[in-house]
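@channel anyone free to eyeball this complex?
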Amino acid sequence: MARKHGREGRGVVQKALITGITGQDGSYLAELLLEQKYAVWGVVRRSSTSPMERIEHILDRVTVVQGDITDLSSMIRLVEEIQPDEVYNLAAQSFVPTSWQQPILTGHTTALGVTNLLEAIRVVNRKIRFYQASSSEMFGKVQEVPQTERTPFYPRSPYGVAKLYGHWITVNYRESYGLHASSGILFNHESPRRGLEFVTRKVSNGVARIAMGLDKKLKLGNLDARRDWGYAGDYVEAMWRMLQADSPGDYVVATGKAHSVRDLVKVAFARVNLEWERYVEIDPRFVRPAEVDYLIGDSSLARDKLGWEPAVDFEGLVHRMVDHDLALLRSPEGSRNDHLPRIRPGSLEEPPSRIAPSRARGRILS
Ligand code: NAP
Ligand code: G4F
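replying in thread with the prediction:
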């Protein structure tokens, strides 16, 4: 049975530690926990530029602490100092194409990083509740439609393989040490805060730029891939609910509806009354070495046991994102700076796939 509210109602302020607080999900989760009257700490890694864009509006209400998920000593230090009631591990190298370019870094961060945090909890206080951000990418070449908690995994990228390690080590620490450690197998979830390299935001931003006359074309990869896309604001609530349940578990979190990248493009261009066929071009640089063709989740368990359900549907999500990017470009900052926001050719969204060796040589595939 899920607790409906944090323990603040019982006179004790709950303490939460979030890794990945500067990311899309971290920012929404921090907002949710603040609403629930938690004291929130967020782990931020040292950088020469500020990564605080998504949490600037709540910086006065969260405590930012320095650490890196790949560094066990900083994880132990933070857990020891803060003594959180709940730890949410959202930190990861989360962009699938980058995982082919930096497979070892992806393994250190997205896989072994999970063990660092679990070790910190095991050593410091086994009563701390733990959430692991697992992923539908673990289903990869899907063995069953729709995917449930019992569907066998078949990852198709170094990222998917790393997430699978993170998933199983969470299950293992639960079973080995009795930790309240839960794994949310979340399907794709998006928002206006999504990174520009992911396809939904690339499309919403591209459509807004074309509607404003700033770009002429939008270059994409595989339009046939299908995803079960939901809204990030809805999905962080499922994370929280998992840690309020009496016992830990694994939960698929999904809308149960799949759409193709082509559908996404159609809905996004229709929002600004443009015909997508005139603007979209296929660019083989964005086709992946191994694709995940079709993800669709069955979240019956999360609905039954956690009382969770999504509120925003696919069209609502795409409209929200396109409207946001249009407003951003029309804002004083956007109209002054043609560079805002824009994905530059040769930027991190390009996978190394299908690039002929002669072209790849001498290029920085960052
Ligand atoms: P995101 O926007 O890419 O955020 C990733 C976060 O991890 C950022 O705050 C990043 O910090 C931090 N990070 C990366 N490497 C780190 C390190 N070595 N030490 C500490 N922090 C580090 O990802 P998201 O979309 O919010 O997703 C959150 C989590 O859910 C990720 O684990 C992702 O793999 C997983 N997930 C996401 C989805 C989805 O559809 N969004 C679906 C399933 C699972 P910087 O700001 O410094 O880069
Ligand atoms: O938006 P994407 O890059 O997301 P992807 O690979 O599904 O991964 C996201 O969801 C996972 C959950 O399943 C998370 F675990 C992961 O961290 C991340 O948040 O690509 C979605 C689909 C792919 O099939 C891709 O091939 O869109 C296709 N696509 C087509 N053209 C493109 C493009 N993707 C990107 N990024 N850029 C394109 O130009």
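from a first look: The two ends are 46 Å apart (CA to CA).
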